[in-house]
Amino acid sequence: MKTTIKRIGIMTGGGDCPGLNPVIRAVTKTAINEHGWEVIGIRNGYKGLYDNDWVKLDSASTSGLLHKGGTMLYSSNKDNLFHYLVEENGEMVYKDVSDVGVENIKNLGIDVMFIIGGDGTLTSARDFARKGVNVIAIPKTIDNDLASTDTTFGFNTAVGVATEALDRLHTTAMSHHRIMVLEVMGRYAGWIALHAGIAGGADAILLPEIPYDIHKVAKKIEDRKAKGKNFSVIVVGEGAKPVDGEVVVREIIEDSPDPIRLGGIGLKVAHDLEKLCGNEARATILGHLQRGGSPSSSDRILSTRYGVAAVKLAVEGKFGNMVTLKGDQMSYDSLENVIGRKSKNVNPNGELVEMAKSIGIVFGD
Ligand code: F6P
Fold it and tell me: Are 153 and 295 in contact (CB under 8 A)?
């Protein structure tokens, strides 16, 4: 593909995440202001690439976006053009239709595709790069579990929402002498649970990285009761599991690149603690509230940095790469390295966990 850039495409794939709109805004503004490029937004992720569903983006259409949650380009977290459900002779069959995507990119005169997404979306981004498309990838997930970058936008907002939920659960827990359990997202990584648990003053934090013994959590609750605190607040990452048990699966979405949806461990923890401690227990599953709505100020800045750094990579011709944040510097890594790398997990012996233990937070280990 030619590398003189006149027109770029941008799309969002996978689950939405606070900060997507600010990235779209940053890429579009930088592309237009600094380079005079035209910008095409592909709608609905890879589905839109297949359907040739696009919209022209300019300063007007991307203004007023900074504080808005979701993605103005819409998203899809199922569609993979390398394994896509199409109708053939009256039957629905999976086929590799990626050539249609490449053709549409060519026909639209797109010189570089900016693809914003998580694992699944970026795996396809790598595969399009292998087919010769000039791809610049931008990582996205509230879970903060991508190994190649230190922090993803959306994470700070999700932690903020979960922290506020904990503050609210504290007062109702205290009023009713209850155990309140908050289940947060994060898949197999406990970053949201750990950060929100510390910020929200949880009594116990249960992480996917530290299988828990429920009796140790119950002991913490009993110790608090002995000190006159007849209520407790617990945060549970959705991927947490007991030492002698398994993760709780909410749903299997067959045609998704990442079919397992976790959820429900909070209910189990509440039920088990009620039986062991005698206090009434309630569980709140925070769910998609963590992903919706306005990005925090820190995520607005971070997503703008990702967007501007992505354009810089394209100007330098560094295609097939993903923008990263390393320490306080924007950097990049090859999609070939990024995809398939083990996800980034909480270190059970790391400083944050040790610090939390020092102030009395229990992890059930
Ligand atoms: O990866 C982001 C995430 O929000 C996870 O934290 C969560 O497990 C999953 O996506 C939920 O996916 P869906 O939107 O398909 O329910």
Answer: yes
- Predicted TM-score of the model (pTM): 0.96
| Ligand 1 lined by 165 (C-beta under 6 Å) | no
Distance 248 CA to ligand 1 centre (A): 14
d(CA 201, CA 184): 15
Helix-strand-coil split of the chain, %, nearest 5: 40, 20, 40
Known catalytic residue: 143?
yes
Backbone dihedral region for residue 346 (phi beyond 0: left; psi -120 to 50: alpha; all else: beta): beta
Supply φ then ψ for residue 9, to 5 degrees: -115, 150
In angstroms, the CA 114 to CA 64 distance is 21
CA angle centred on 283, ends 277 and 284, rounded to 5°: 155
Q: Which two tokens stand for residue 272?
A: 């088990």
How far, in Å, from the CA of 262 to the mean position of ligand 1?
8
In this structure, which residue's CA is closest to atom 14 in ligand 1?
15
Q: Which of 48, 115, 107 is nearest to 81 (CA)?
A: 48
Dist CA 262 CA 346 (whole Å): 18
Mutational pocket test of ligand 1: of 116, 143, 289, the residue with most ligand atoms within 8 Å of the beta carbon? 143
Find the distance separating the first CA and the last CA of the chain, reported in whole Å.
54
Question: What would the two tokens of residue 56 be?
Answer: 């022209």
Sign of the CA dihedral with 241 first, then 141, 54, and 95 last: negative
How many Å apart are CA 11 and CA 167, to the nearest integer? 36
Q: How many CA atoms lie within 13 A of 362 on its CB side?
A: 20
- pLDDT tens digit at each of 365 positions of the chain: 446 999 999 999 999 999 999 999 999 999 999 999 999 999 999 999 999 999 999 999 999 999 999 999 999 877 899 999 999 999 999 999 999 999 999 999 999 999 999 989 999 999 999 999 999 999 999 999 999 999 999 999 999 999 999 999 999 999 999 999 999 999 999 999 999 999 999 999 999 999 999 999 999 999 999 999 999 999 999 999 999 999 999 999 887 778 899 999 999 999 999 999 999 999 999 999 999 999 999 999 999 999 999 999 999 999 999 999 999 999 999 999 999 999 999 999 999 999 999 999 999 99
